[in-house]
Amino acid sequence: MTQLFGRNADRKLRRGAALVVVLAVSVLLFGYFRVRSDSYWHVGIAREQPVPFNHKLHVQGLKMECGYCHTGATSMAGAGMPSAQNCLTCHSEIWRGVPALEPLHTSAELGTPIPWNSVIWFPDHARFHHGSHIAAGVACSTCHGDVGAMTETSAAVRLTMDFCVDCHEDAMAETGARGSAVTALPAAAFLQRKGSASPAAEGMDPPASHQDGRSLTDCSVCHY
Ligand code: HEC
Ligand code: HEC
Ligand code: HEC
Ligand code: HEC
Ligand code: HEC
């Protein structure tokens, strides 16, 4: 009878199978650590901007509040980016005729938004709402680092699921209602323990907190 498989076939098959397993595990491990790496979250990576904006000069130097330029941050899902008008309030006088500010005048004349390049990476399958967090007293710096001290803007925090869920678990535990609905968050006490700056310190006027009855750790709170 003719031999269907060579004498080494069994050994080769085992080796092949072992290789597949090792490869699969490597890919999974690589994925796991990659998602937790700074580069994946663009931490510390600044991008070229249409106008070389400097947070430190405007926030620390001129004492401007975040909400002056990111007008949605206290109430909307998106914090929003400044329009040319936000800047020209001052720059129609200050630094008039400086070429670096030319895109502001072009945007204002054409009525088009300034094409700022985002330095934050966040997946489409996760949901976020700025207003709810500011209302609960969470400081901008918790998720964005000390932006007011940056001369070039970059991400400072990895916005991973663990990062989000850890705080949501604490928030549930804090109210003694883990796993059930949070009705009223004792924001001040909670944030004191978390060591965040008070919203007032960031120039924010917190609106009333709101909840729709779901636990903050419920998957559907953050996923569509
Ligand atoms: C409240 C007034 C005010 C607003 C609003 C404002 N700026 Fe400024 N900006 C200033 C002042 C003051 C300076 C410093 C000028 C100097 O030192 O000569 C400055 C400096 C700058 C510079 C020079 C930066 C540097 O490193 O020297 C740029 C670029 C700039 N602003 C861009 C912007 C942009 C873009 C906006 C809107 C998002 C904006 N500014 C909004 C007041 C303002
Ligand atoms: C004078 C206007 C102005 C003020 C005040 C200001 N920002 Fe900004 N912010 C900008 C501009 C312009 C950009 C886009 C250019 C850049 O990334 O530097 C930006 C970008 C950002 C980004 C990155 C957004 C993205 O998608 O890349 C974050 C986060 C941010 N700002 C947070 C803050 C915080 C927190 C404060 C208060 C401490 C603040 N900003 C105050 C104008 C402002
Ligand atoms: C609990 C975490 C958290 C806090 C607190 C927070 N942010 Fe954000 N911010 C995010 C996330 C997540 C994104 C990305 C959202 C997305 O891409 O859908 C983001 C995006 C942004 C952006 C990009 C533009 C946009 O419209 O979303 C700006 C600007 C910004 N935040 C500013 C602020 C400012 C200013 C504050 C404080 C008033 C603040 N953030 C507080 C998590 C936070
Ligand atoms: C420092 C604590 C903290 C961190 C970090 C945090 N959250 Fe929250 N989050 C809260 C609190 C407190 C509430 C409840 C706010 C309220 O009562 O309306 C909340 C509410 C929410 C809601 C419900 C909003 C609504 O109005 O229905 C979503 C969605 C959410 N968070 C997503 C996220 C995501 C995504 C991240 C990570 C990028 C994150 N959170 C990080 C504290 C945090
Ligand atoms: C507080 C917000 C929040 C809650 C609650 C939450 N997630 Fe996530 N989840 C995120 C964010 C943000 C990401 C993207 C960041 C990342 O990839 O780590 C994510 C990523 C994921 C991913 C993609 C895989 C990964 O790690 O990148 C899966 C799958 C997932 N979540 C499933 C779940 C399930 C199942 C639940 C309920 C048990 C849940 N999530 C609850 C915020 C949340």
From TrEMBL:
<keyword id="KW-1133">Transmembrane helix</keyword>
<keyword id="KW-0472">Membrane</keyword>
<feature type="transmembrane region" description="Helical">
    <location>
        <begin position="16"/>
        <end position="33"/>
    </location>
</feature>
<protein>
    <submittedName>
        <fullName>Chaperone protein HtpG</fullName>
    </submittedName>
</protein>
<dbReference type="InterPro" id="IPR036280">
    <property type="entry name" value="Multihaem_cyt_sf"/>
</dbReference>
<keyword id="KW-0812">Transmembrane</keyword>
